[in-house]
Structure formats: C-alpha cells, structure tokens
Design a protein that fits this description.
Oligomer: single chain
CATH architecture of the domain at 3-48 and 57-245: Orthogonal Bundle
Radius of gyration: 37 Å
Helix content: 25-40%
Largest sheet: 5 strands, antiparallel
CATH topology of the domain at 3-48 and 57-245: Penicillin binding protein transpeptidase fold
Strand order of the largest sheet: 7-6-14-13-12
Number of helices: 24
C-alpha cells in the first residue's frame, strides 16, 4: 500500500520538474538577478611557469585544492570531444536547458520508478558547481533559469571551458588540467583517448571512479565510454582496441615543485591563483643547483650554499638557489640563505673604489700605502697577514688589501660610501655611519645575497642599478648611480684571472671566458662569497653555515670561486666591455700613477676620467745634480706614502695567534676546542711546534688549528726562510667558565681576516 502513494509522489515530482524547467524556467530566467562573474571566478592554484612557459611549481589554492584552469584550446583534442559525447551531446544545439533531455529523463524515471536521470546540461552543471545549493526542485528551477541566462552572456566554448576547469576529479583535484597532471604527469593537451575517457568517466562519480582507489570500476567506466564512442561512430574499432589496451595509472602523482626557493620568492605575498609568469630559466637553474651540489660534496654537512644569476639587461632573476642542501637531512637545509643577513667580507670593497674613481680622487694607477693603520684600538691586516708597502689602487683592489681599502674609504668619506651602498640596494645598512666605522668596507655589516646581486648590477651595467625581479612584466626602469667610466675601470681591475687558484685560472685563460669577480671571507670564516659578472650576466655565490658557525673551509677563493668559474665558463659569450665615452688612456708614472714629469724614469698607460681625475703631475721623482732620477718621498703630503716609500726592509716575523701570555680556559662543556696558529711576516711553508712536538705544516694562508690541552705550552715556528718565532700560552681546565674569561681561542688583534 505504501508503494503506490510513493510512486504517485514521484510521478508528480517528475511532472513538476519537467514543467518548471521547460516552461517556468524560461519565464523565471528573465526576472532573477544574474552575473557571469560567479561562474568565471573561483580560488585557483598559483601555477608558476618559466621563461619558456613550462610549469615548474604549483601551490594549493586558498581552498586547499589543486586547480589549474587552462583555455579550451589547451585541453587537446580528446577531452572536449569525449566530455560532450558523454555529458551533453546536444550541447551545441540547446539554449542551456535541453527539452529533449527533459522528456527523456521524465519517461526514463517513470519507467524506472525512481530518479535515474536529472536531464542536467553542461551549462546547468556549471551553475551548480559555481553555486552549490540544497538539492530540491526549487534549486533545479534556479539552475535551469541561470543556465538560460548564462547562455545569453557566455559563448558555448567559454561555458565548456569553465565547466571542464571547475569539475571535481576526486579528493582536492579540480579541473581537467590538474587531474591530468596528477594522474598522468602531463598536461591535458597531451592526453590520449583512453586517458581522456578515464577522466571524463570520473565526472559522474569523482570518488567512485578514482583509478587509484577503485581501479576495477574506473576501468569498467572507461571502457563503457569507449564502447559508446565506437557504437556512435565517433572512433573506429581499431582505435577502440588500442585505447582499451592502455593501462590505468598505478596511483596519483605529484605536481611539479622545482626551484623551490625561487618559487617562494616569486610567489611573495600573492594570495591569488592562476598562472604566474616568472623569469626563471630552467637550464640555468639546473646548472646552478648542479654546480652548488657538486661543490658541497667535499665540504662538511653543516656548510651549505646559495646562488643567483641575473640578466644584466633587465635585472631578471634567471636562476636562484636559496640552499644547496635543500631536500637533504642536513640541519637547516630548508632555510633560504639567499635572503638571510650575512657578513659580506671583502665583497663591498669595489664600491669604495667606485666612489673614489667617480669623484676623481683616484685612478687605477694611483699610489696607495699598504702599511699598518690603527683605528678603534685594532689594526686591520691583509688576509695573508703581510703588508706590501706602496701599491697601485689597481693592485690594492685586485688583491683585496685591507689597509688601502680603509684609506680609500676615509678619502671618499664614510658617509658618502654608506650612501652609495644604500643607493645600490643594500637596504639592510640602516645604522648610522658611526655604528659601522671603518669596518664598513671590510665586512663589518650584514647584507643578503639578493642585495649583493642587485648591487653588482651597478658594476656589470657600467653604472646603472637594475632591481632584481622574479616576475616577467614587472621590470623596473634602470637608474644611473655612477658614471660608466668609473664602473668600467673597476671591471677592468676585477677581470684579472691570475687571482684565481692556478687550476681554475688555466681553465679561463685563453678560452675567451672573460669575467670580473670579487671574493669575500667574513671574520671567523663564517661566510665565503664570490660575486662575478660579464656584460650579460651577474652571478653571486655564498657558502656558509646557516647557524652562523665558523669553518676553516669557508674562504671565498677556495669555497665559492670554483663554482663561479664552472657556471660562467658555461654561460659566457666571450664578450667584454669596450671603453665607454668618458674614459680614456693616458701616460702615467709607473710608480706614482700620476701624469709623468721629466724626472720619471719609466711610464705606462692606464685609464682615467678626463675632466674628473686629477691631472697633478708626479711629485715623487726629481733629478739630482748629477742628472739622476731619484724618488723624493718627502715631497708627498701623504704621510703614510712617505713612510711606505722610505722603508723597504723585510717584515719581521711574529706569532699573532696565540698571542704571547694568552690564557685559555678549557671547559667540560666544550667539544674539540681549538686555537688557530697564525703568524705575520712568515714565508710559506711554516712548520709549527707545540711543546717541542711537531704540530703541522702550513702550506697556504689558511691557519692550522691546534686542539687545546691543559697546561703551559711553548708554541714555536720555523718559516720558509729559516726564521723562527715563539709564544708562551697557558690552558686552564675549569668546571664552570667564570665571567670575564676569553670568549674564544683566537687572541689576534686583526680586525678582519679577509680575502
């Protein structure tokens, strides 16, 4: 008895559905508010593409879904065809509601005694996906009415495109492009007929027909669709046979997630989805990552690397690796070191010389004093712990001498150099001039790798600043900071490959791979830098420990420079700068670097800036009564140069670490506590002894390290010339470190051991 009333209610419902959709829907559609905006907009996944348009990284949408909308033309041949055949074969003919489908659904439901078909069209399904509502007859009426309105506003292709991009495909996958990449690891345009049929089959039951969970049902559904296509003459029997022979995907894959730190930097603070066109060059990214990984293979696991490659013409970031150990189990491997503040070491020195050249204070040939210079109670020494006396500015910058750099800083003015550093992009230098003092140019500050790269574009573009950008279409106009001539002179100094280790220098010389480069090593061996450039590219590489710990391996010339050579040898076009307008060559005294007088015994050619560089003739040479040319340093106003020219004795040898009389405290909490063995004025090799026992042979300027042991010790050395020096130190063992005890094993007064 209960069956007949239920059936009557069903028949009545079916009749109401038909009447409402076929009649009332047409009238009702003209009176409800409608906008296509809600059909065309939804939360999509940020999808990052490289310069060639290839997807390299995808992120979840704000709704935690994978959604990658693509144009209909990018869905290939099979997806649109199969979708129309299966979901709505009269899609091109009906106005949004299909009367034939309604009649077919009515009689089909009547015969079955239950609802087996709802007569939905692709347009009405798009409406339902865009605005989910409770499933009632009133809802159906609204959906049919909105479908009619949508067809008046949007084209058929646009409606089909929106539907296929919004349709669910199981889990948090939305749209055919996301489904294609998840299940088949390729775009929708590359799908085969069988693959397209599998995805379209999921539209009826995204969870029921998931191939990774219900492969049997998915296969049955796919083959049923293929059989229907063959029965209707859409495909041939041979195509049907080949399509059925294809295997189902074994499981769900993953979206591409390459160049992770580049992707995060490009994404920035953006929350909206859609395609994000980036400046990434995947071949250069792979080269950078491969080179850094190779360089790290022989270094302690605590040390990692970061690097960036810029296009000089635009400032576009072509490659960026924030951590060379990303994906490993090393501590801190997830940290984006390229945006972390680190000490730059000597890498900022070129900007002091740049300012000096630009103001006409010096030229590359100008004479500078590399002699002891004290400030703030400390004395800066060169990386090799020696002084060279009088040197040309060209040599001082090329060899990264510390004292001449400080003298140049003072000549230009600390405030002026700090302003220049801020103007070229070092925005982290936000303290006062007094805070940094003379150590500013020796690495007594903190910058990031990306700031360094942007600043070096001022050198690589001969004077104009290019702000690094990760996004195409967001290139900022260049801004001139200094003259072309001054930047060219710096490039001419920094291109010398002789400063490289012999093996790498040989790989550059004669190969046409010209580039300028500057290394930097921070105090305590915590950061190793190399910044390099050609007319086309700027490259900056950093090696260090994310925790800030020191490692003796962290020397710019040894750690980061080899990686720089490998990369620039690959990308170099064999080009170099032509002298720009505003720079010229003149004869200068070989010693003073100024225009020669009649007394100068020898001259050479070097660059200068006409009208800007000093034209004061050489004051160093004069003729004696006998007509002999001699150096007369007393005529110089520069006291340091007078002393440097007058004193030519060899430097004395002394031990600067450990200092004589030093007391070290060996705590039970410390592990492998060591002290650096350093000497000044010694000629390599240096043989070290502690307590009369041989402690090691020092063949490079890198110090040896001696493990601390309790007691009094005599530290002595013999250098390559047979000269000796000694130092007495005491190591005390204590249970708890008292306040005021030395904070580290190195008692050197050297301000910065820089390269």
């Amino acid at each position: 008895m209960t069956g007949k009333p239920a059936f009557r209610r069903f028949v009545l419902a079916a009749l109401l559905l038909f009447a409402a959709a076929a009649g009332g829907g047409f009238l009702f559609s003209a009176h409800i508010p409608f906008s296509a905006k809600h059909l065309e907009e939804w939360k999509t996944s940020p999808c990052l593409t490289d310069r060639a348009g290839e997807v390299f990284s995808v992120f979840l949408s704000e709704d935690s879904e994978w959604s990658l909308p693509v144009p209909l033309a990018a869905m290939g041949k099979w997806i649109p065809l199969v979708a129309l055949e299966v979901e709505d074969r009269r899609f091109r003919q009906h106005p949004g509601v299909d009367p034939r489908a309604l009649l077919r659904a009515f009689f089909g439901n009547l015969r079955a005694g239950r609802v087996v078909s709802g007569a939905s069209t692709i347009t009405s399904q798009l409406v339902r996906l865009s605005h989910p509502r409770p499933r009632t007859f009133r809802t159906k009426l609204y959906e049919f009415a909105e479908a009619l309105r949508a067809e008046r506003v949007l084209s058929k292709d646009r409606i089909l495109e929106l539907y296929l991009n919004r349709a669910p495909f199981g889990g948090n996958i939305r749209g055919v492009e996301a489904a294609s990449r998840m299940y088949f690891s390729k775009g929708a345009r590359e799908l085969s007929l069988a693959e397209a049929a599998l995805l379209v089959g999921m539209l009826r039951g995204p969870t029921l027909y998931r191939p990774d969970r219900n492969p049997g049902r998915a296969l049955e559904r796919r083959n049923s669709i293929l059989d229907g296509l063959e029965e209707r003459g859409v495909i041939s029997k041979e195509i049907l046979r080949l399509a059925k022979a294809e295997k189902l995907p074994s499981g769900r894959g993953a979206f591409p997630s390459r160049a992770w730190h580049f992707a995060l930097a490009a994404l920035g603070e953006r929350k909206d989805g859609g395609e994000i066109k980036t400046t990434l060059s995947l071949p250069l990214q792979e080269l950078l990552e491969r080179t850094l990984a190779s360089s790290l293979a022989s270094l302690p696991r605590e040390i990692t690397a970061a690097g960036v490659i810029l296009a000089n013409s635009t400032g576009e970031v072509l490659a960026y690796c924030g951590n060379g150990r990303l994906g490993s189990e090393a501590a801190g491997s997830w940290v984006d070191c390229g945006r972390s503040l680190r000490s730059p070491g000597s890498a900022l020195k070129p900007f002091a010389y740049l300012a000096a050249f630009d103001r006409g204070l010096y030229t590359p040939a100008s004479l500078l004093a590399d002699t002891p210079l004290a400030f703030s109670g400390q004395s800066p020494r060169n990386f090799d712990l020696t002084y060279r006396g009088p040197v040309a500015a060209r040599t001082a910058l090329a060899d990264s001498l510390n004292v001449p750099a400080v003298r140049v800083l003072r000549a230009v003015g600390n405030e002026s150099v700090l302003d220049l550093l801020r103007n070229v992009g070092f925005l982290s230098l936000d303290k006062s001039t007094g805070h940094y003092g003379d150590s500013l140019i020796l690495g007594g500050c903190e910058v990031t790798l990306l700031q360094m790269a942007g600043a070096y574009t001022v050198l690589s573009t001969l004077g104009t600043l290019r702000t690094p950008t990760f996004l195409r279409g967001e290139i900022l106009p260049p801004r001139r900071v200094v003259s072309e001539g001054s930047a060219f002179m710096v490039a001419d100094i920094l291109k010398d490959p002789g400063r490289l280790l012999p093996l790498h220098a040989r790989r550059v010389e004669g190969q046409g791979h010209w580039f300028a480069f500057k290394t930097g090593t921070s105090y305590g061996y915590r950061d190793a830098w190399t910044a390099a450039y050609t007319p086309s590219f700027t490259l900056v590489i950093w090696f260090g420990d994310p925790s800030g710990e020191s490692h003796p391996e962290l020397v710019g010339l040894h750690a980061s420079a080899p990686a720089m050579v490998e990369i620039l040898r690959t990308v170099s076009k064999g080009e170099w700068y032509d002298p720009p307008t505003g720079v010229a060559v003149r004869r200068v005294c070989s010693l003073s670097g100024q225009p020669p007088s009649h007394a100068c015994p020898s001259v050479r050619d070097d660059y200068y800036l006409p009208g800007i560089s000093s034209s004061q003739p050489c004051a160093l040479h004069r003729f004696t009564k006998e007509g002999t040319s001699v150096v007369w340093p007393s005529e110089l106003e520069d006291y340091a140069l007078r002393r440097a020219l007058a004193v030519e004795r060899p430097p004395e040898i002394s031990i600067i670490s450990p200092l004589p009389g030093s007391v070290y405290f060996l705590t039970p909490l410390g592990k492998d506590q060591k002290v650096a063995l350093k000497a000044e004025g010694a000629r390599l090799p240096v043989y070290w002894f502690v307590g009369g026992e041989f402690a090691g042979k020092q063949e490079t300027r890198l110090p040896l390290f001696w493990p601390l042991a309790g007691g009094s010790h005599r530290v002595s050395l013999v250098d390559g010339d047979g000269r000796t020096a000694s130092s007495e130190v005491t190591v005390q063992t204590i249970e708890k470190r008292p306040e005021g005890s030395p904070s580290g094993p190195d008692g050197s007064l050297s301000l910065m051991p820089l390269d």
